């Protein structure tokens, strides 16, 4: 199979994400997880999930150190500035707990990132100063274990679309299972690389607006993936693709100003 299905999926993703480009004031009508659950007001399991608003482009991110946030490269590629919301559950509520403004001088998109195939879809943001940790803001450990994650239970969180038409401003999460790479290649072709993770979306998954968000191994509580792309539409049940974080361990450690363990 060639990469035509992957290109169509990416094109559909770009078109649908563009629908989510309203200002923050219209968050409830502009942009969560398909088939997932709402994060409760006192649920502090997802303190590492960051809302990224870059030039009217909505994404997620992951706090992995006091000054380090990981996200998808396509969330920042070609953008002029971004605002990061820390400790937010409802992004329509003002004021937000902590908001940090950053520019391209604060972030690094992987040098091998391909904006068409979405390979090496990872970026690292260095915050101007450390964020303040609290019961609602805290980092997640990064998995450096460069091994297979087939059949691994995982959880993803974000503020993306609930389905192809409904949106929410409240953080949602959904449990997924990591599938073999071959599963995603059956859908998207040979553009699926060993530096990607394939997640089964039979019972729910990510949708537009969840890109860049965290995929965490529920057995270890460590970050293993960054949401990258999926097929056209939210409820299509095609597998979701994430950047495989352990594949970029050396790169992350090289450019992070934090001592990540």
Give structural notes.
Helices cover 14% and strands 28% of the residues. By secondary structure, it is of the alpha+beta class. The chain has 2 domains: 49-139 and 249-255, Beta Barrel (Thrombin, subunit H), CATH 2.40.10.10; 140-247, Trypsin-like serine proteases (Thrombin, subunit H, Beta Barrel). The strands form 2 sheets. Strands 6-5-2-3-4-8-7 form a 7-stranded antiparallel β-sheet. It is globular. The model is unreliable at 1-31 (pLDDT under 50).
Number of helical stretches of at least 4 residues: 5
The name of the CATH architecture of the largest domain is Beta Barrel
Strand content: 25-35%
State the major sheet. 7 strands, antiparallel
Number of domains: 2
Rounded radius of gyration (Å): 16 Å
Number of strands: 14
SS-based class: alpha+beta
- Residue-averaged pLDDT, rounded? 87
Q: What would the CATH topology of the largest domain be? A: Thrombin, subunit H
- Anisotropy-based shape: globular
Distance between the termini: 40 Å
| Largest sheet: spatial strand order | 6-5-2-3-4-8-7
CATH class of the largest domain: Mainly Beta
User: Helix fraction?
Assistant: 10-25%
Order of helices and strands: HHEEEEHEEEEEEHEEEEH
């Amino acid at each position: 199979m060639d990469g035509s299905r992957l290109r169509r999926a990416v094109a559909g993703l770009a078109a649908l994400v563009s629908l989510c480009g309203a200002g923050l004031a219209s968050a409830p009508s502009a942009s969560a997880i398909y088939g997932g659950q709402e994060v409760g007001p006192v649920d502090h399991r997802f303190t590492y999930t960051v809302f990224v608003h870059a030039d009217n482009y909505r994404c997620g991110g992951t706090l992995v150190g006091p000054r380090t946030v990981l996200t998808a490269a396509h969330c920042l590629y070609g953008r002029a500035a971004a605002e990061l919301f820390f400790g937010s559950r409802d992004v329509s509520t003002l004021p937000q707990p902590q908001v940090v403004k950053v520019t391209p001088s604060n972030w690094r998109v992987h040098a091998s990132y391909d904006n068409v195939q979405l390979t090496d879809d990872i970026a690292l943001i260095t915050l101007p100063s450390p964020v303040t940790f609290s019961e609602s803001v805290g980092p997640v450990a990064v998995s450096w274990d460069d091994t297979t994650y087939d059949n691994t239970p995982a959880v993803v969180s974000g503020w993306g679309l609930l389905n192809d038409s409904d949106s929410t401003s409240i953080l949602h999460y959904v449990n997924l299972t990591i599938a073999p790479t071959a599963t995603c290649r059956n859908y998207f072709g040979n553009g699926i690389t060993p530096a990607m993770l394939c997640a089964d979306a039979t019972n729910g998954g990510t949708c537009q607006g969840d890109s860049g968000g965290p995929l965490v191994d529920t057995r270890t509580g460590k970050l293993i993936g960054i949401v990258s792309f999926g097929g056209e539409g939210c409820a299509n049940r095609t597998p979701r693709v994430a950047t495989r974080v352990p594949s970029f361990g050396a790169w992350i450690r090289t450019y992070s100003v934090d001592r990540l363990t």
